Amino acid sequence: MTLTAELELIKTMVLKLLLLINGQLSLTYLVLDGHFGNNNALQMTRQCGLHLISKLRHDAALYIPYAGPQKQYGQRRKYGDQINYDHLPAAYLKQTSVADGIQTRIYQAALWHKEFPQLLNVGIIAKVNLNTSAHAHVVLFGSDLSLTYDQIIDYYALRFQIEFNFREAKQYWGLEDFMNVTQTAVTNAANLSLFMVNLAALLLRGFRQLNPQFGVLDLKGHFRGLKYVSETIKLLPEKPDPILLAQVFDTVARLGSIHLVEPAFNSS
Asked: What is the pLDDT of residues 78-122, one digit of tens each?
């Protein structure tokens, strides 16, 4: 099959990443959003030696594998009844839960789609508002038939965490603002932004033990305050008493915080 230019680009990036990792990590799945919920993306993924996890259209025509008698001659029948999303088969129901007036049912089955040459491992999340009877559903799928329904959901949910990482890199760490144009400079700037996302996440763990609402802006304000105090101390003829110095650091570091942390020192 002929891949689109977009899929060829993704395939090149995936193969480069696999070469860079060089087997140090065991990678099995490529998670792509609903734009790539098609056979072309699946075949591109399989060419890279990976399995695809993605999302189908909410009205995707899915068929139960035909299990009835076959004709003695001619092409074998493989498509059974089409899935009706308003009346999903009870045999495929895996989990039911209710929270805040919303009933969630999760179904899983190996189903056919006529645009795919292979069975798909499909997970359907159906939600119903018990007060208004409004309903909606999401159709996830994977090419690995051994995945359980909760694995499909968990792995697909990781895609949002990746997007959150890029959002934080743009919003807080300059990924959207750098003006470099050469390949090396762009690579360094992008890597530094994403490195800071990881470093900030690590540092936030300690602060959130005291204040669960502590965020990236609080973190930046904290270290900016520490830097201001450090540079100011250098201008003094003598360093203050260590206890006073610790109080100054603690107080100034909290000035730029949105979600204040209780001071380590009691000013009284």
From this structure: 999 999 999 999 999 999 999 999 999 999 999 999 999 999 999
Q: Which two tokens stand for residue 193?
A: 């932004």
Question: Which backbone phi and psi does 203 adopt, to 5 degrees?
Answer: -70, -35
- At residue 189's C-alpha, the angle toward residues 254 and 224, to 5°, is 15
Instruction: Determine phi and psi for 209, rounding to 5 degrees.
Output: -70, -30
Question: How many CB atoms lie under 10 A from the CB of residue 171?
Answer: 12
Torsion, Cα 74 80 82 88, to 10 degrees, reads -170
Task: Collapse the DSSP code of 67 into the 3-class scheme (helix H, G, I; strand E, B; otherwise coil) and give the result.
Answer: coil
Tell me the one-letter amino acid at 84. N
CA distance 224 to 118: 56
Domain spans of the chain?
Answer: 5-67+76-164
Q: Please give the Cα distance from 19 to 28 (Å, whole number).
A: 14
Which token pair is 185?
């400079």
Segment holding 63, helix H or strand E = strand 62-65
**183 φ, ψ (degrees, to nearest 5):** -60, -45
DSSP letter at 145? T
Cα-Cα-Cα-Cα dihedral sign, residues 121, 19, 179, 218: positive
Q: What is the pTM of this model?
A: 0.73
Q: Which residue has the tokens 């065991």?
A: 26
Alpha carbons 45 and 39: distance in angstroms, whole number: 10
